[in-house]
Specification:
mainly beta, Type 1 dockerin domain, Methylamine Dehydrogenase, Chain H, 3 domains, six-stranded antiparallel beta sheet, five-stranded mixed beta sheet, about 5% helix, elongated
């Protein structure tokens, strides 16, 4: 009965004129928790700059993210260090003010973002998109080079800079940036105020929508804010002086001006559509507050953030100002170092320059519960509270770039990202034929763009299999510039390879994805059969497998070991050994199973379902594969 049923199946099958080749399906790789470490800054090239270098400060290699990824916890925020530029001339952790103040940014018409940082010597300009130092435009140094205080803003293609400790002109310095990266053009200096005799200012802000610049001034009691019209950006026109005395900082957007009023311990909000007659909208103080250092609104116009700067321990406040007669503190935040300095807001994310606490990144989607999601400690040599470390942060560049300045004279360029880690390193199963060569493929699944792979492995099987070579031909890493054997111990059957995308371009990466990255070739001795040789991913000389991105290294991806099966099976399911899987293999197996056909050249290939026996189950397995999309055949282990 079974025999007649099989014959009926064969008669139907023989009417079909096509055949299908079997393609093995690779199962989806598992995901796992990983741990990440800072990619050593010493690997960054020192080519970025003329007379300046990317610092390889060991102390700064540890502070790159607030969190380690947790399996199943969703995306992890990463503030990844791309480069550090040293404008102090030397690194001295004991000296506080040696060369760095605020930082701002500018985007050129060709799409490159530039970091603009106040230094002891002037203004440093770095192409952040290309990690290329451009120049340090010289400006006067004050008080023996120890105090400097510079503030920078931009409008169109112009840079405006001030300092509150330079008693000699320039006052408001104007630079034309449109010729970058080739050159920076000096436009002029403007001594400010209604009498043209004020060469100092602590802070400025440009309302880029309306084209007006506001500067902290010193014209006298009740006249502390200068207004300039930038209709001609190279020739700002003084409009008016107004405001309370002794202000500290300003923010302006579309004719709304926010003012931090310094030692008055008050903050104000002004309607500025009539520049000759500013209208006070709101003034409030924080109960128990100390110094109104700065104010910055969120995208929700009801909420503002404020800092009080000193003494240590005063929190950054989030306040609801909707009711101008009853301003309420709705949320508070403070990080290590105990002194929040400046705060800038982008969407629901607050970027805090936190002096000795470094850059702190805080989620304020719920203003009542601000939650830190990331950080970078620019001053790790000292965790004490105080006025040293990170001065400013600029989060408005494109491509996730963030700039930060440190008072030691260091400019940091970061890339922020949210990453879900499902990284896997997997070795496939290969076939070893006696007296010939066997190959196994190493596959990688990566969540981030990759610059470098390290692949250590061993082959501790019972036979004297030897490593011949590796190849990247036909893999995702085929255009990698470096494939290097970093460890080899044939006696103990261990080796490790390093694959690097580029030897010179630190911004060139392999895109995230999945697929083969390396082929490993082994020589098989004669006379072997019946057993397999495992290929295991293991640490070699204390160094395990890793994937290196622009700014961090995934050091524990999920690992899937492979093996080389010794035998004759090259094409599982190819029972008649004609290098194709089709109906003729079904016919061949029927003859073999029912004793009317020849024996296969390789029993392993005939054992289509891999159950170590050639029987009717293999016939139905192949029929399901060919005509119903069933599972791919696998190699059995019945070789003789």
């Amino acid at each position: 009965m079974i025999y007649s049923s099989i014959l009926m199946i064969i008669l139907v099958v023989c009417l079909l004129t096509f055949s299908l080749s079997a393609t093995p399906k690779i199962p989806s790789p598992p995901t796992s928790d990983v741990h990440i470490i800072k990619d050593p800054l010493s690997q960054l090239s020192s080519k970025y700059g003329s007379g300046y270098r990317v610092s390889d400060l060991e102390a700064l290699e540890r502070g790159f993210s607030a969190q380690s990824p947790v399996a199943g916890a969703g995306p992890t925020y990463l503030l990844c260090n791309l480069a550090i530029y040293d404008f102090s001339g030397r690194i001295d952790t004991e000296q506080v003010n040696v060369g760095g103040t605020d930082v701002w940014g500018w985007r050129s018409p060709d799409g490159d973002d530039y970091a603009l940082m106040g230094t002891k010597a002037g203004i440093a300009i770095v192409n952040a998109t290309r990690l290329a130092f451009i120049t340090e435009f010289p400006l006067p140094v004050t008080f023996g080079g120890q105090a400097f205080w510079r503030d920078i803003k931009t409008y169109r293609n112009y840079l405006y800079a001030v300092s509150d400790l330079i008693l000699d002109p320039p006052g408001l310095t104007i630079l034309d940036l449109q010729y970058l990266p080739d050159s920076v053009h000096f436009v002029g200096n403007l001594v400010m105020g209604p009498l043209g005799n004020d060469s100092t200012s602590h802070n400025i802000f440009v309302d880029t929508i309306t084209g007006f610049l506001y500067a902290e001034g010193n014209f006298g009691n009740g006249k502390s804010i200068y207004i300039y019209d930038l209709a001609d950006p190279e020739n700002p026109v003084f409009v008016k002086v107004f405001g309370p005395g002794g202000i500290h900082d300003l923010y302006a957007n579309n004719d709304t001006l926010y003012v931090a009023e310094g030692f008055s311990n008050s903050y104000s909000m002004w309607e500025m559509s009539n520049k000759l007659s500013p209208r006070l909208i709101l003034r409030f103080s924080i109960p128990g507050g100390f110094f109104a250092h700065m104010i910055w609104p969120t995208e929700d116009p009801r909420i503002v953030a404020t800092t009080e700067e000193s003494p240590p321990g005063r929190t950054l406040k989030l306040l609801n100002i909707e009711n101008r007669f009853d301003v309420q503190v709705v949320g508070e935040y403070i990080g290590p170092g105990q002194v929040p300095h400046n705060v800038l807001i982008s969407g629901d994310t607050m970027y805090v320059s936190h002096y000795a606490g470094g850059v702190r990144v805080v989620d304020i989607s719920d203003p009542a519960a601000p939650a830190e999601i990331g950080f970078f400690d620019t001053h790790p040599a000292s965790d004490e509270a105080g006025f040293r470390g990170n001065w400013g942060v600029y989060p408005y560049a494109q491509d996730g770039l963030v700039f930060a300045s440190d008072m030691k004279g260091l400019l940091f360029i970061f890339r922020e990202m949210e990453a879900e880690f499902g990284d896997t390193l997997r070795i496939q199963t290969g076939v070893g034929l006696p007296g010939s060569e066997a190959v196994v493929e190493v596959h990688a699944t990566t969540a981030l763009p990759i610059r470098q792979f390290i692949i250590p492995f061993e082959w501790p099987g019972p036979y004297n299999m030897t490593l011949d070579s590796v190849s990247t031909v036909g893999t995702r890493t085929e255009d990698f510039e470096r494939v290097t054997l970093t460890a080899l111990d044939q006696f103990n059957k261990r080796a490790a390879y390093l694959l690097r995308r580029s030897l010179s371009d630190m911004t060139d990466f392999l895109e995230a994805g999945s697929g083969p990255i390396l082929k490993i070739y082994f020589s098989m001795p004669f006379g072997i059969s019946g057993e397999s040789n495992p290929i295991r991913i293991v640490p070699i000389n204390g160094r395990g497998p890793s994937f290196t991105t622009a700014c961090l290294t995934v050091v524990s991806p999920a690992l899937v070991d492979g093996q080389i099966v010794f035998g004759c099976c090259l094409d599982p399911g190819d029972a008649n050994n004609d290098q194709s899987i089709n109906i003729s293999d079904v016919t061949f197996l029927i003859g073999r199973v029912f004793g009317v056909g020849a024996a296969p050249n390789c029993e392993d290939e005939a054992d289509a379902n891999g159950d170590n026996s050639v029987n009717i189950a293999d016939i139905t397995y192949l029929i399901a594969r060919i005509f119903a999309g069933g599972p791919a055949p696998v190699c059995g282990t019945t070789a003789t």
